[in-house]
Amino acid sequence: TSMRAACAPESASRATQSSSSTTRSATDWFRASIRTTTRTPRRARQEMSHGAVAGPRTWDGSTPPVITSNVEGTWAYDTVNRRLREDILGRVFRDNADVLKVGGEAERRLRALERELSTASTSVIAHIDDDGGPDIATWRDLLEPWVGTTWLDAPWLLIEFYFYRRILVAIGYFDPSSPLFNYDPFAADKMNGLRAGASAAASLASKANAFAKRSKSDDASLAEELRLFVMVALWGNRMDLSIWPESGAKGDGANRASEAFIEALNAGEKSLLWDDSASVAAKLAERSMRDISIVVDNAGFELTCDLALADALASSGAAKRVVLRVKAHPVFVSDAMDKDVRDTINAMMASEDADTAVMGRRWASHLSSGAWIIAPDFAWCQPQPFWALPRDAHDELKSSDLVVIKGDANYRRLLNDCLWPLDSPFEDVACYFPAPILALRTLKAELGCGIPQDKQAIASVDADWMVTGKYGVVQFCEAPARQHAVASQIYGVSAFAGRDDYTPHERLALSKTLAALANASKDLAHALKTAPLRRTALLGAASSGDKNASGDTQQKLDVVANAIFKRHLATCGAVRYYSSEEEDAPRVLNESGEFVVCIDPLDGSRNIDCNVPVGSIFGVYRVDDGASALDNCTRAGSEQIAAGYAHYSGATTLVLACGDDGAAVEYTLLDGEFVVANANMECPKRGQVYSLNDARFDDWPKGLQTYITRVRNGQGESGKQYSARYICSLVGDFHRTLIYGGWCGNPRPHLRVAFEAAPLAFVARAAGAVATDGVVNALDIKPREMHQRSPLFLGSVDDITELVRCGDVQQDASKSYSV
After folding, report:
1. Which residues are CB-neighbours of 779 under 8 A, at least 6 positions away?
2. pLDDT tens-digit readout, 349-404
3. Which pLDDT band holds residue 611 (cuts at 50, 70, 90)?
4. Nearest to 291 by CA among 312, 314, 315
5. DSSP string across 714-746
6. Which residues contact 720 (CB under 8 A, 6 or more apart)?
7. Distances (CA, A) of 736 to 263, 366, 739, 755, 791
8. Phi-psi category of residue 815: left, alpha or beta, with phi > 0 → left and psi -120 to 50 → alpha
9. How many CA atoms lie within 13 A of 42 on its CB side?
10. Of 2-16, 135-149, 172-186, which range is least confident?
11. What DSSP designation does 637 have?
């Protein structure tokens, strides 16, 4: 602190000094600086090279434990020890007795599976026999880590999918020579479920038909009506046939279908543990979506409810197309396949109830017109988490404007069946998802997220509240953060600005802040890419001709860039103070935020009109609760906990440094996400290029003139003749310098300490380079005001040391330039 206090007020007076004492002190400082800023990267730096795993993580980069079936008293334990054998497999034998010949191959294999399940604690997993299924190779990869593990000790989700796939092997589902080739062993249950829901479907049909007639109007009630169809699709999930009694169109099954559905709708908010239905309905009512995907769960009446939602989306124009993503083969008793969708539509059309028949014909019309698409995929029949979906399935979801995740099994895959703290925010756990997501789930497994503690307390009055399907969630994340690699960069960092006691909450909040900065950079890159096509709106000076707080004429894209970064950082919830080159004072984004962001949203904006590379520069500090907003935003760069820049050129690059010992990591924007391009940027110790405006040579101080003359002529310490490379875009010049070596900068007090000098100095240190104002370390400069300017020289250690040794390199501010 005393060194910063001593250096800051003296820097201005030192600008014109050229005495030998000043030169010696600067050289001595640089020798000390080099020893502390050019370290051999720790192993943690090297571990970034493989990239971050795509799934959500806790504060330390781990994931919560996955549910297994070896804990007595749990739903998972009962499922694997009893339900799969007694309820599910028993039902397969009973429902298919007419085709399962006693002593036949299918019956024999099913009995063998039954015996395995009866000794689940000792029976071990083996690879699935090659039965001709196109998914065998995938299953080998999925099972390989668990072969030899008991049914109880392997992940519960894996075991359940494995069990159903074993049933298909047993009956010869994929074997053209088998008498049960392409035979659905659960067809009877599905049809019974459809019949059982007939009376409820008739009630639903009258409402759906009325909505379809008026939904094209601009009725103000559209959002509320769409919300009702969202709720219909949610509570239809109570109709999961795997936990239902075995009844058909009459008796208990039919009564339960109608009563359970009506009960669920009437229960409404009382049974909802989280409800985003209003916000998603408002979004749907904008009628701005092209494709909506519904990852369908169960057949039977639940499918009827899902199709009612799809009908409302198509009829209202909320989406141009609804893609029904269904299973490619039978699984989980009732899970819907292509045939089940068509059977449901046909059943509706053939109904004796007039309203139901009308609804069915409209559904058939959606299908024939292309408003509905049925898209079966093996990806929905497998246990891998949704962040590890096959590339084609992932990309199809990514192209959707909204993905609706239905049911418990799909939700479990969304969480990888991990035991997240139940109050973990849904947007944190679903942060990896490739598209906007709406999860509709009634709870039937002992896991979850996004459930506040007060709601947990209310529901837990029922001992089995997590498995009965009585309680539900409607969870909507309009813009999943993604940017997993960027958010994960802090995991290997041990200390931030000298502190190693960051709490799990603070680390998570920092990850969110970095992801928000990455997403803002992505959005700005898109705006820059399209700017020439929107010249009137985006190019040229701002319409008012205003100057920003730094005195520069604001460009239209300066205003746009500032708004983009402010919006993303406000949304992430972790930033309290936002200090921008484009604003005259710090802004409060979130009163409870933990961090400060100082930013130049668009560096080099004078180059925008001619398509020269530009950038964004930012530094992140931890909030000092005892300081004012201004004091929080005018701190020495050494107090930063992260900093970086985005470089918008032929590719969009993000360079980020975190913590006291983290590497400078280079990312490249690919398909909307920043991926690691260089896990450990290291600036060469010396280069052969300097970057500053040579046209100002005659105005430079003597020391700088002497240095430039020497290196131009090959008379510098390296003996090499230097070249000049200058594009008047600080980010572009600095990025090139980090890669090729040399140095860049500006000898005038022109660059803002908080918004440009400090963040780039932080990155330079992480890359083994150095930064100075010509006298002191740039990280030690504490600005006295928000927009304070300074000279700045950044680059290779040997080059900057040679430059500083010349002394007298700071130009005074007496002369300004219009270009």
Report:
1. 636, 637, 638, 640, 758, 761, 762, 765, 771
2. 999 999 999 999 999 999 999 999 999 999 999 999 999 999 999 999 999 999 99
3. confident
4. 314
5. T-STT-PPPEE---S-HHHHHHHHHHH-SEEEE
6. 688, 711, 714
7. 65, 55, 5, 20, 19
8. beta
9. 10
10. 2-16
11. G
Q: At what angle do helices 301-316 and 198-214 cross, to 10 degrees?
A: 0
CA 205 from chain center: how many Å?
38
Provide the phi-psi class of 467: left if phi over 0, else alpha when psi is between -120 and 50, else beta.
alpha
Type of residue found at 562: N
Closest C-alpha to 559, from 570, 572, 574, 548: 548
Distance of CA 807 to the CA centre of its chain: 48
Among 251, 253, 243, which residue's Cα sits nearest to residue 197?
253
Per the model's pLDDT, the better-predicted residue between 240 and 761 turns out to be: 761
Q: Is the dihedral of CA 475, 671, 317, 324 positive or negative?
A: negative
What is the residue whose two structure tokens read 């906007």? 436
- Confidence at residue 816, expressed as pLDDT on a 0 to 100 scale: 77
**Are 594 and 506 contacting, i.e. CB atoms less than 8 angstroms apart?**
yes
196-216: average pLDDT: 87
pLDDT tens string 34-82: 333 333 333 222 222 223 346 787 767 778 999 999 999 999 999 999 9
Supply 447's token pair: 């896991």
**What DSSP character marks residue 388?**
G
Which residues, in sequence order, are CB contacts of 278 under 8 Å at separation 6+? Answer: 223, 227
Report yes or no: 434 and 409 within 8 Å, Cβ to Cβ: no
Amino acid present at 341 = V
Task: Note the pLDDT tens digit of each residue in 162-191.
Answer: 999 999 999 999 999 999 999 999 999 899
| Burial class of residue 733, CB neighbours in 10 A (0-12, 13-18, 19+) | buried
CB 563 within 8 A of CB 582: no
The two tokens of residue 811 are: 């130009």
For the entire predicted model, the pTM comes to 0.83
Q: How far apart are CA 742 and CA 358, in angstroms?
A: 75
CA distance 219 to 206: 19
Cβ atoms of 180 and 441 closer than 8 Å: no
Burial class (CB in 10 A: 0-12, 13-18, 19+), 769: buried
Distance CA 174, CA 177 (A): 9
Distances (CA, A) of 814 to 484, 698, 704: 47, 14, 17
The amino acid sitting at 573 is G
